[in-house]
Design goal:
mainly beta, eight-stranded mixed beta sheet, disordered N terminus
C-alpha cells in the first residue's frame, strides 16, 4: 500500500515565553452540586449543572467528569444566560469543551472584557441530525493578559438545536485547537479499514477522489490508539486510483496512520462467530442497525434493507444496508444500497415494490423494475429504482416527489383503483398522522386523505379473517406496532375496530414492516429489536424474528396474530420431549445441561393451583404469573389469559434476546437478554402448586450463518 501523511495547518500548540508552559488554571469544571458563583437567568440552565443527557435529548458525550452546562432543560424552546464571576486573564489561551447549537450570538460561549464581547464560540450543529458530542476549542487571549473578564453561556434561540453544552474551561499556555490532517492512499484493494474507538472523539471525515470531490463523507470515532474494531468503506470503484482521507479538525492526526487496505471486510474469518453475535437474528457485519426498510421479494430473494451506520456502533450516518435471503432465515449481507445524497442529507426509512407492468417507465429490456421510496432528510420523499435485482439504484430525476414535514413512505399497489398508494408519516405542531397519496406511475403523487394518531414508520395491508377470502379487513399500523382494523377504498382508511388501538407486540420491538410481493401470499413481518444492544462488539442492534401475520376471530373481535415463519424449523438440530406429566413444586427440573446456547421451546401447560411457572433460560427468568395471567420477562410484563385452562408459549433463545409467542401468537414479546457465557442450561419449575405439562419440547438450534457471506 502506498500512503502519504500530510498535516494541513499549523500544529496547534502554542507555548508561553518560558521554556515550558505554566501550569493550567481551572476556571470551571461544573462538578459541584450548584453553579457556585455563576448566575443563571431564564429557564434554560436551572440552578445546577446537568449530569449528562437531559430528558428528550440525544446522548450527550465528550464532557469530563459528571457535570456540564446543558441548556436543553425543558427542551429547545427554553432560553437564558449563565454568567461567571470575574476572573483575571493570566495565560495565553482559554481551552473549553463546547457542543450543541451553532447559532452565532444565540447559542454559545462569550468572553467579556469591560462588558464587551471580545471572543465567542458556538457549537457545531444547525441542521437535523448532528451530534451532542462536546469538542475542544480555544481562544488566543495573549492581548488580554492581565485584564479582568467574565464568561457568559448564552441560549437565546428556540427550535432545532436551540441549546448549548459547555464544560471544562481552563486557562492555559497549551491550547487545544483542532487541526486538519490528510492521508493520500493509492488504492490497490477494495476496502479501507478504518479504526474506531466507540465513545471516543467523533470527527467528520471525507474520502476525496482525484478531482477533490467527496466520494464518502461521514462522522467517525476515529481511534488514535488501539481501536475497538475496524469499520470499512467499500471503494471497489476507485481501485487503481489515489484517494485522500481527510479530517478537518482532529486532536491527534496520528489516528490516520491506522487506516489500512484489504480485499475483504475486517476480521472476515471470525464474522458471525463473535461471543455474543446472534445466530438466527439478523445483525449487520459492522456498525449500527435500526428500522427494516424496503422489504420485498423478487426473483427468489427476500430483500431486507435497513437503517445503517456503517462507521460506528451508535446511530448516525444513515444509509440503507442490504441483505438477501432465499428463505427468511439465512441472510447474505450485500454492499450498501443507498448512500446519503450528501453529508447530513440522510437516507431515512422507506419501502420497496416490484413495479409490475412498468408503470413508472423505469424498467428496461422488458423487465419490471424494483422501485423504492425513502426519506431524504434534506429534500423530502424520494424515488429510486433498480434493474439489477436491487444491487444498484438510480435516482428519479424529479425527486423529491412529496415534500412535507414527515418521513417513512410505504408504497403498495391498490388493484381495484389501478393506482399506487403511498402511506407516509406527517406531522404538524398539534398533529401526528399517516397521510395517503395516490399515483398512476410512482412519480406524480396526489394527496388523498389523513389518519391522525400515529407516529412514524407506517404500514398498511389487507388480511383475510380466519383465512376467509370473502371476509377481509385492512390493517393500519405504525412504529410502535399498535394497529387499527378497518376498510380502505384506495384513498382513505376508515377504522372499524373502535377508537383504541390494538396490540400484538410488546418489549424491544419497533418500526416493523411487511414484505411486498411475498410469493406464497403470506403477510410476513420483520421488526427492529430496538435497544437489543451488544456492548463491546463491532455491531449493534438486531432484527426481530420474521413472523407470519394473520387475522383470527376472538371473543373480542378479529385480532392480529404473529407466529414465527415455518422456515425457522430448518434450524432445529435435535429435540427432546418432556411433556405429559405433572410438574411438582420445589423439584429440580433441568431441561438441558450439556453445552449449547441456541434453543426453541414449545410449551403448553395447565397452571392448576400453582402460583407461577418459571423457565430459566440460561440465567434469564421467564415467568407465568398465574394470579395475574401475565407473562413476565425482565422489564416486560404482558397479559396472556388462559384459553380453556391452558397457556401456550413458543420461546426462542438467541445470544442477545428472548422472544415469546403466546397462545398461537395472540401476544408476542421481544426482550433484550445476553445470557451468561458460562451458563448453557435450561430449567423449569412450578411454584405454589403442581403444573400439568401437556407439551414441553426443547429444540436445540443451529446457527443460520452457514457460510461467510460475500462482500
Amino acid at each position: 500500500m502506498l500512503a502519504t501523511l500530510v498535516l494541513v495547518g499549523s500544529l496547534a500548540v502554542a507555548t508561553a515565553a518560558e521554556d515550558s508552559p505554566r501550569p493550567d488554571v481551572l476556571v470551571a469544571d461544573f462538578e459541584g452540586d450548584d453553579y457556585g458563583g455563576w448566575k443563571a437567568t431564564g429557564d434554560a440552565f436551572g440552578d445546577a449543572p446537568a449530569r449528562g443527557t437531559l430528558p428528550g435529548q440525544m446522548p450527550v458525550e465528550g464532557y469530563l467528569g459528571r457535570g456540564l452546562v446543558n441548556s436543553f432543560r425543558n427542551g429547545d424552546d427554553s432560553t437564558g444566560d449563565l454568567t461567571s464571576p470575574p476572573f483575571k486573564i493570566d495565560r495565553t489561551h482559554l481551552n473549553f469543551l463546547i457542543g450543541g447549537g451553532g447559532w452565532a450570538g444565540e447559542t454559545g460561549l462569550d468572553l467579556l472584557v469591560d462588558g464587551r464581547v471580545v471572543r465567542s464560540a458556538v457549537g457545531p450543529n444547525r441542521e437535523p441530525g448532528g451530534s451532542e458530542r462536546l469538542k475542544w476549542d480555544a481562544w488566543d487571549v495573549k492581548d488580554l493578559q492581565g485584564k479582568e473578564a467574565t464568561l457568559r453561556v448564552v441560549d437565546r434561540r428556540k427550535g432545532g438545536w436551540g441549546h448549548v453544552n459547555v464544560d471544562q474551561i481552563v486557562q492555559t499556555d497549551t491550547p487545544k485547537i483542532p487541526q486538519a490532517a490528510t492521508r493520500a492512499i493509492a488504492l490497490e484493494k477494495r476496502f479501507l479499514h478504518i479504526p474506531v474507538k466507540t465513545g471516543g472523539p467523533k470527527y467528520r471525515a471525507k474520502i476525496l477522489g482525484e478531482d477533490g470531490r467527496p466520494i464518502r463523507e461521514f462522522d467517525v470515532e476515529l481511534a488514535a490508539g488501539k481501536p475497538d474494531f475496524f469499520a470499512f468503506a467499500d471503494l471497489d470503484a476507485c481501485k487503481g486510483k489515489t484517494v485522500t482521507f481527510r479530517v478537518d479538525e482532529i486532536e491527534d492526526p496520528k489516528a490516520l496512520d491506522g487506516i489500512a487496505q484489504a480485499d475483504d471486510v475486517p476480521d472476515a474469518a471470525s464474522l458471525y462467530k463473535e461471543p455474543h453475535r446472534p445466530q438466527f437474528h439478523f445483525t449487520s457485519r459492522r456498525g449500527w442497525l435500526n428500522d427494516p426498510n424496503g422489504l420485498v421479494w423478487r426473483d427468489g430473494e427476500y430483500h431486507l434493507f435497513y437503517q445503517h451506520n456503517p462507521y460506528g456502533w451508535a446511530w448516525g450516518n444513515v444509509h440503507w444496508g442490504h441483505a438477501v435471503s432465499p428463505d427468511l432465515v439465512r441472510w447474505t449481507e450485500l454492499p450498501i444500497a443507498l448512500y446519503p445524497h450528501e453529508y447530513g442529507d440522510w437516507a431515512f426509512s422507506g419501502s420497496a415494490v416490484t413495479d409490475r407492468g412498468n408503470t413508472s417507465g423505469f424498467g428496461k429490456d422488458g423487465a419490471d423494475p424494483l422501485v423504492a421510496a425513502y426519506t431524504s432528510t434534506g429534500r423530502g420523499e424520494c424515488i429510486v429504482y433498480s434493474n439489477d435485482r436491487g444491487r444498484t439504484w438510480a435516482e428519479f430525476a424529479g425527486n423529491p416527489v412529496v415534500k412535507h414535514d414527515g418521513r417513512d413512505p410505504r408504497l403498495f399497489w391498490y388493484a381495484p383503483g389501478d393506482h399506487w398508494v403511498m402511506a407516509v408519516y406527517d406531522e404538524a405542531k398539534d398533529r401526528q398522522s399517516i397521510d395517503f397519496y395516490t399515483s398512476p406511475d410512482l412519480k406524480a403523487w396526489t394527496f388523498a386523505s389523513r389518519s391522525d394518531g400515529y407516529f412514524e414508520c407506517p404500514d398498511v395491508f389487507e388480511l383475510a379473517v380466519d383465512g376467509d377470502p370473502n371476509r377481509k379487513l385492512w390493517v393500519l399500523t405504525a412504529a410502535d406496532g399498535k394497529y387499527r382494523l378497518g376498510t380502505f377504498d384506495g384513498k382513505a382508511f376508515t377504522p372499524t375496530s373502535g377508537p383504541e388501538k390494538l396490540t400484538t407486540w410488546h418489549g424491544n420491538f419497533y418500526a416493523a414492516q411487511t414484505f411486498s410481493d411475498e410469493p406464497k401470499g403470506r403477510r410476513i413481518q420483520i421488526g427492529w429489536g430496538q435497544n437489543v444492544t451488544f456492548p463491546g462488539s463491532a455491531f449493534n442492534q438486531q432484527m426481530a424474528l420474521p413472523v407470519e401475520l394473520t387475522l383470527r376471530s376472538t371473543k373480542d373481535g378479529p385480532r392480529m396474530f404473529a407466529e414465527p415463519v415455518e422456515e425457522l424449523k430448518s434450524l432445529r438440530a435435535g429435540s427432546k420431549e418432556f411433556g405429559g406429566k405433572a410438574l411438582e413444586p420445589g423439584a429440580e427440573n433441568p431441561l438441558v445441561a450439556e453445552a449449547g446456547d441456541l434453543f426453541e421451546i414449545e410449551l403448553a401447560f395447565r397452571p392448576g393451583s400453582a402460583k407461577s411457572l418459571e423457565l430459566d433460560l440460561r440465567g434469564t427468568p421467564l415467568i407465568y404469573d398465574v394470579d395475574r395471567q401475565d407473562v413476565v420477562c425482565k422489564q416486560v410484563r404482558t397479559f396472556v389469559p388462559q384459553v380453556d385452562g391452558v397457556v401456550r408459549l413458543h420461546v426462542f433463545l438467541d445470544r442477545g434476546s428472548v422472544e415469546v409467542f403466546a397462545n398461537g401468537g395472540r401476544t408476542a414479546v421481544s426482550v433484550a437478554a445476553i445470557p451468561d457465557d458460562a451458563n448453557h442450561s435450561l430449567g423449569i419449575a412450578a411454584k405454589g402448586g403442581p403444573v400439568e405439562l401437556e407439551k414441553l419440547t426443547v429444540h436445540a438450534l443451529r446457527s443460520s450463518w452457514l457460510a461467510h457471506p460475500g462482500p
